[in-house]
TrEMBL record:
Residues 33-160 form the MARVEL domain. It is a multi-pass membrane protein. InterPro entries: Marvel (IPR008253), MARVEL-CKLF_proteins (IPR050578). Its main location: membrane. This is CKLF-like MARVEL transmembrane domain-containing protein 6. The lineage of its organism: Eukaryota, Metazoa, Chordata, Craniata, Vertebrata. Pfam families: MARVEL (PF01284). PANTHER family: CKLF-LIKE MARVEL TRANSMEMBRANE DOMAIN-CONTAINING PROTEIN 6, MARVEL-CONTAINING POTENTIAL LIPID RAFT-ASSOCIATED PROTEIN. It comes from the Eukaryota. It is found in: Membrane. Signal peptide: none annotated.
Length: 181
């Protein structure tokens, strides 16, 4: 009797992403591309910029509204950009685009967003009407801007460490002249 007739195939080669312990959306969400400290920074950036935007939206009236509107635009943009970067790092989109370009975009987005958020928070502090919602918005704005800038500094440090590890040590130079005269 032939083995194939008695014993059938009992396992599947590839069950697919929608089956097994990790099903539906959880199968497409992967946090392992970022180190834990960068992951925490990204989540803090998202939460703090979103809190700054929400607190700013609670403000009912203003006398000098230019700072408020600029802060509103920057805090909303920062929360959307940080959400976008987090989605790119944690989904299969990262595999479909060039990882070097994603990291470069993240690098410049963190620098630009951190600086503009710091400026917007400073302008809002100078022009607000001193309500508790405005104080909360500026505190969250400054904290978020510092998280963006700290993430940028972390990336600069990691780039320097990588370039230092890649740089080969200088080869010892051969002596061409005698040591004694």
């Amino acid at each position: 009797m032939e083995n194939g007739a008695v014993y059938g195939q009992t396992t599947e080669e590839n069950p697919g992403p929608a089956r097994g312990a990790r099903s539906a959306l959880a199968a497409y969400f992967f946090l392992g591309r970022l180190k834990w400290h960068r992951r925490v920074l990204k989540i803090l950036q998202l939460v703090l910029s979103l809190l700054a935007f929400i607190c700013e939206e609670v403000v009912a009236q203003c006398t000098l509204c230019g700072g408020l509107y600029f802060f509103e635009f920057v805090s909303c943009s920062a929360s959307l950009l940080s959400l976008l970067i987090l989605i790119v790092y944690c989904t299969p989109v990262y595999d479909r685009v060039d990882s070097v370009k994603v990291k470069a975009s993240d690098f410049y987005i963190m620098l630009g967003t951190g600086c503009v958020f710091l400026v917007a928070s400073s302008i809002f502090v100078a022009t607000h009407d001193r309500t508790s919602a405005e104080y909360a918005a500026t505190v969250f704005g400054f904290l978020a801007s510092f998280m963006f800038l700290f993430d940028f500094c972390t990336m600069v440090y990691e780039k320097r460490q990588e370039s230092h590890l890649r740089k080969p040590e200088a080869a010892p130079r051969a002596l061409t002249q005698p040591l004694t005269s």
